[in-house]
Design goal:
By secondary structure, the chain is an alpha+beta fold. Helix content is about 25%, strand content about 30%. It is built from 4 helices and 13 strands. A hairpin with a 5-residue loop joins strand 7 and strand 8. The two termini are about 15 Å apart. About 25% of the residues have low confidence.
Length: about 260
């Protein structure tokens, strides 16, 4: 009886330790930030990432100062199923009007990434409009937890180190074009200043290999108020192997601990 009771207590201790270590792993992953835990398809990697301050959005990017190119991945959850996500650079101001924007959504069940020069406050059309920067390697796919991931590469003017950027999410696509988004405070606050190079951002780095591309749609709509800036720089964006190792380390500790307890039972 005493032996059975002792084994029962030991098993309880093992279970409690396992729960504690798993909770610790979850806490560490949460503390690492959403952008650092994002896993991209093979061939897509970025040197820097930032958790944007609104809409649960993240931005990953690689800036190559030699050829002034910006490769990026923007992730956010559309406001509703069947909605859209957008990211862009505003060379003339800090709001939506004037932004050179990429918008990802689905047309007839397939993802497209359209370019929009947001010149006024009117509905978007179903065809892309030219933007100030050459846009290539445009693509989109599904991320975790209902997020949409938008990919692209922009050719920027030489010497550009800081940009005003905007981001947004919408709830619907109508007539093959993104419909108007909500005007809640988070929507209005979705803009900031982004340091591409200098402190917190690498001066030069290889551009990632991108997947498929697509371009197709209209013009833009919005009004904004004064907003809080996004992070000026970013954090190193982990490679898939590094992120996997980081996530797996607590599990390895757990297995070793359980093995040790079993050895003395």
């Amino acid at each position: 009886m005493a032996s059975t009771t002792t084994q029962h207590h030991r098993r309880r201790a093992i279970l409690q330790l396992a729960i504690l270590l798993l909770a610790s792993q979850a806490a560490m992953l949460s503390a690492a930030g959403a952008c650092e835990s994002e896993m991209f398809p093979a061939g897509k990697s970025y040197t820097t990432c930032a958790d944007l301050p609104t809409l649960g959005a993240t931005l990953h990017w690689t800036y190559d100062a030699v050829d002034s190119s910006l490769s990026l991945a923007f992730t956010a959850k559309p406001a509703a199923t069947g909605g859209w996500v957008a990211w862009g650079i505003n060379p003339t101001g800090d709001g939506m009007k004037g932004a050179q924007t990429l918008i990802a959504f689905k047309q007839t069940g397939a993802y497209v990434v359209n370019t929009y020069n947001l010149t006024g406050y009117r509905p978007l059309g179903a065809a892309s409009t030219p933007i100030a920067y050459e846009a290539t390697e445009l693509a989109a796919d599904d991320g975790a937890d209902g997020k949409m991931r938008l990919y692209g590469k922009l050719q920027l003017p030489k010497g550009m180190k800081t940009v005003n950027h905007i981001w947004q999410v919408g709830s619907a696509v109508a007539s093959d074009a993104p419909a108007k988004h909500a005007f809640g405070q988070e929507n209005l606050d979705s803009k900031g200043s982004l340091a591409l190079a200098g402190a917190g951002a690498p001066e030069s780095a290889p551009s990632p290999v991108a997947g498929g591309s697509s371009v197709d749609s209209g013009d833009v709509v919005e009004s904004q108020t004064a907003l809080s800036p996004a992070p000026a720089g970013g954090k190193p964006s982990p490679s898939p192997s590094a992120a996997t190792a980081y996530a797996s380390a607590p599990v390895l500790v757990l297995l070793l601990a359980v093995t040790g307890f079993l050895a003395i039972v």
